[in-house]
Design goal:
Blueprint lengths: L15 H24 L10 H17 L9 E7 L15 E5 L3 E2 L5 E5 L7 H4 L8 E10 L2 E8 L12 H8 L15 H7 L7 E5 L5 H15 L1 H7 L1 E5 L2 H7 L2 H4 L6 E4 H4 L11 H7 L3 H11 L9 E5 L2 E5 L1 H14 L3 H22 L6 H8 L2 H10 L5 H10 L1 H7 L6 H7 L15 H14 L7 E4 L7 H9 L5 E6 L13 H8 L5 E5 L1 E2 L4 H7 L3 H4 L7 E2 L7 E5 L4 H13 L5 E5 L4 H10 L17 E5 L8 E7 L1 H6 L4 H12 L2 E9 L9
Helix pairs in contact: 1-2, 5-6, 6-7, 12-18, 12-20, 13-14, 14-15, 14-16, 17-18, 17-20, 20-21, 21-22
GO molecular function: 3'-5' DNA helicase activity; ATP binding; DNA binding; hydrolase activity
InterPro entries: DNA_helicase_UvrD/REP, P-loop_NTPase, UvrD-like_ATP-bd
Keywords: ATP-binding, Helicase, Hydrolase, Nucleotide-binding
């Protein structure tokens, strides 16, 4: 690695670091000029109507935001020196070309590129090239930064047969850099196996099984950024969405995409996605498991269609002095045909009056009249036709229907016949039915049932691409809810089966993808960790045979001797916790104190009494507050430089069953980037050895 004081043997470059700093300054100036050019645009002479003016102004505002220069975020992080020219303009020359790889495209006043977007095809060798396959790259250069200032560089001469493989010191330093604030992007450290996932084709769904610290979340977010670059117009029309497990997690990751220049990606939890009702209640684990079971989809379908009634009376339409009669048997044929077509309930309800009106028009033509489409529409609105439709195909309110299903034992029994047994039906029913849907104590699982019902009535709009993180914790019905949002698009599914901590956690990715509606998805497995030190991940992996027997244990590229401390504290555990927190805070970066949820109020009081400020999960750290108090239930997906873990036994017993408790512990043990201290008074679980 080259530093400001080191020398280099480039024949024509006596001050390489100074030249790179100059290029950085020139690139930043060029980016500023690009932004100023957009800000100076006068739209008064190029817009037609006020509507087009608003649309154009919005596009300009978004472009200005995308061109923001983030002072502490490197504008470029690498350089590729090609052996031969890439562009046609230089194809006749004898030498190669040089490209700086960064977060966004930057060009000079003449339009020549100064920084190439990392997503561009010419940038791909920065992540994929190796000595075995140099991809026409003579040299790959990585840059090191401190507080936004370029301070070092490191070269790999990929086409030099005499240079051996060495571990990148800058790459390691970037991975190990202290975590401060929200989640960082990994664009400078993407590995070949990660890059393959990031650049996978938009038409296919990718499922990533990733052990802790393998970067699966960041890979998913970078995949969104790549797809928006490669398929900008398509996704601008159809939209993209990132689904996370909770709001704290989304706050943690929300700065990754803006740092890559992408501002228009929606983020939501599953609960926010299906927010048809206010969630005020909670289900017992067994009840939630049944409500989340895929069989409930058929129960709801039966309930929605239970009101359909075959007509017993004819429909008589009076127009002027004439009466047109559609007999009951003909109406029955129409209703049965709509039932057999298996279209949405609401779409069928809209089609039925038109079908009846068409039958009337046929009779009018047979009677010598010449009706047109306007007559058919008028007949469809006729009171007699409306009455027939209401009797045969009554309107369905999704909220009211689910309220009835959970309140009325007979209605549920009819809808669940052959699907749920008596005990399961009893679990689903409210013990004390509320008077109305408005006062019902809706649970998160109930909201998903309402969303399923709403889709049975009217089709849910589909997006172009959806990223689902921590997907192992979703129920089959939640998968269906997300799948409805990408029926015509693709998805990136991210998770770790070993970290499944809900009673309904998925047993296999094949099963999960089936419920998502993406049976043909490609499954990738990431087992090489970059975040968690080897000593820590090896310790946590002792739990794998008990929590996920089929998974291979993760490995780590980072050897950090002394990164794990496990200490039994016979007495004075709180004093030991405080001491451990103070020790961790002596290091640079973030610190997480993770404990069983029931212990959080006690620990909050302890920290306050000690004058030690602490943050809630997802809150950005500051110079004055770098300690976050983390309930074990919210630790998933988060990372801290140093972690102090309180009482593993309490984390296990805080869950409804032992395996779920061990999985929660596995999550908590794998949040540390630089050091983990485990303090316990009670015996450790035997699975840890």
């Amino acid at each position: 690695m080259h530093s400001p004081t080191s020398t280099d043997a480039f024949a024509a470059d006596t001050d390489p670091l100074g030249r790179e700093r100059s290029h950085l300054a020139a690139s930043r100036a060029a980016l500023t000029a690009m932004r100023e050019d957009v800000e100076a645009l006068d739209l008064r002479d190029v817009t037609g109507t006020w509507v087009s003016a608003l649309v154009l102004q919005k596009q300009v505002d978004e472009r200005i935001k995308a061109l923001a220069d983030l002072a502490h975020t490197p504008l470029f992080f690498g350089r590729l020196d090609y052996l031969h020219a890439i562009s046609e303009a230089d194809s006749e020359g004898s030498g190669g070309e040089q490209f700086y790889i960064g977060r966004r495209h930057v060009h000079d006043a003449d339009g020549d590129p100064m920084v190439i977007d990392w997503r561009a095809p010419v940038s791909q060798p920065f992540y994929r090239a190796s000595r075995k396959d140099p991809m026409d790259v003579a040299k790959r250069r990585r840059f090191g930064y401190t507080g936004g200032e370029l301070t070092a560089y490191e070269d790999e001469n990929l086409s030099d047969p005499d240079e051996g493989d060495t571990r990148s010191a800058l790459l390691a330093a970037e991975i190990e850099k202290p975590r401060v604030g929200p989640m960082r992007d990994i664009v400078a450290t993407i590995q070949p196996e990660q890059d393959e996932i990031v650049r996978a084709d938009i038409t296919g769904t990718v499922c990533v099984q990733g052990a802790p610290g393998t970067g699966k979340t960041a890979v998913g977010l970078h995949r969104v950024a790549y797809l928006l670059y490669a398929h900008r117009e398509r996704l601008a029309r159809t939209g993209t969405l990132v689904v996370g497990p909770n709001r704290s997690f989304l706050q943690y990751i929300e700065q990754v995409l803006p740092a890559l220049g992408e501002l228009d990606v929606a983020q939501a939890t599953v609960q926010e996605l299906v927010g048809h009702v206010e969630v005020r209640g909670a289900d017992a684990a067994d009840t939630a498991r049944i409500k989340g079971d895929a069989r409930m989809a058929q129960v709801l379908r039966n309930a929605v269609r239970s009101g359909i009634t075959l007509p017993a009376e004819p429909c008589v339409v009076v127009r002027g002095s004439r009466r047109w009669r559609v007999p009951a048997y003909e109406l029955e044929e129409i209703v049965r045909e709509l039932m057999a077509r298996d279209i949405r309930y609401g779409a069928a309800a809209e089609a039925l009056p038109q079908r009846i009106a068409h039958a009337v028009l046929v009779k009018m033509e047979q009677g010598g009249e010449a009706p047109d489409d306007r007559v058919q529409d008028a007949v469809a609105r006729n009171a007699a036709v409306k009455a027939t439709v209401k009797a045969c195909w009554p309107a369905v309110d999704p909220v009211k229907l689910v309220h009835r299903l959970l309140s009325d034992a007979e209605f549920l029994a009819a809808a669940a016949d052959g699907l749920l047994d008596a005990d399961e039906q009893a679990l689903v029913l409210w013990s004390k039915p509320p008077r109305s849907a408005r006062t019902a104590p809706w649970s998160a699982a109930d909201a998903v049932l309402i969303d399923e019902t709403a889709d049975l009535v009217h089709r849910t709009a589909s997006l172009g691409h959806v990223v689902v993180d921590e997907a192992q914790d979703l129920s089959p019905m939640q998968y269906r809810a997300i799948g409805r949002r990408c029926t015509t698009g693709s998805a990136t599914v991210l998770g770790d089966l070993a970290q499944g901590t809900t009673p309904w956690a998925t047993g296999s990715w094949q099963e999960a993808l089936h419920h998502l509606g993406k049976d043909g998805a490609h499954i990738e497995e990431l087992t090489q960790g970059f975040r968690v030190p080897g000593e820590v991940i090896a310790y946590a992996s002792r739990l794998l045979p008990a929590i996920a027997p089929g998974l291979a244990p993760a490995t780590s590229v980072r050897d950090a001797p002394g990164s794990l401390t496990v200490r039994q504290v016979p007495s004075g555990r709180d004093d030991a916790l405080l001491a451990a927190c103070h020790d961790a805070l002596r290091h640079e970066g973030s610190v997480g104190l993770i404990a069983a949820d029931a212990r959080i109020p006690v620990l909050a009081e302890m920290l306050e009494a000690a004058g030690l400020p602490c943050l809630e999960p997802g809150t950005e750290t500051t110079a004055d507050a770098r300690l976050t108090l983390v309930p074990a239930s919210l630790a998933k997906g988060l990372e801290y430089d140093y972690v102090v873990l309180d009482e593993p036994a309490a984390i296990i017993t805080g869950e409804p069953d032992h395996r779920t408790g061990l999985r929660r512990l596995y999550v908590s043990l794998t949040r540390a980037v630089s050091g983990l201290t485990v303090l316990h008074t009670e015996p450790l679980p035997e699975e840890l050895g």
